[in-house]
Amino acid sequence: MLLDTCFLIDLQRERKRRRPGKACAFLESWEGAPLSFSLITYMEFLEGYPDESRETADRFLRPYKRIATDAETAWQTSRIERALRAQGHPIGDHDAWIAGTARQHGLTLLTRNSEHFRRIPGLPLAVY
Length: 128
What we know:
It is a single chain. It is globular, with a radius of gyration of 15 Å. A five-stranded parallel β-sheet has the order 3-2-1-4-5. The relative contact order is 0.20. Strand 4 (109-111), helix 7 (114-117) and strand 5 form a beta-alpha-beta unit. The protein has seven helices and five strands. The protein is an alpha/beta fold. The protein has a single domain, classed as 3-Layer(aba) Sandwich (Rossmann fold).
């Protein structure tokens, strides 16, 4: 399963407030399942941290596998972008890269942003 940025942000907020919510509940239900995040999600997640806090962010993400992008990711993303643009329903570059990563690796994308990602045919989604 590929974790979308919104999931990681929600999970972080729930843990920080010590008030488990939908993200914590979903994570508990998937205990032991391999979870990963894309390099694009990593970049988006890091935007919320000051310069001196990169180690804190990396420690939070340590339990999950980071998936790098490559030429195949670019190809998958370009197909998604091209199809959605032709339909007049683009979703934004970052979300397209995240979807391209999920598609490339045959992963279900865990998100609460179903409005964008449902537009992508054949992309398995889990919504929390």
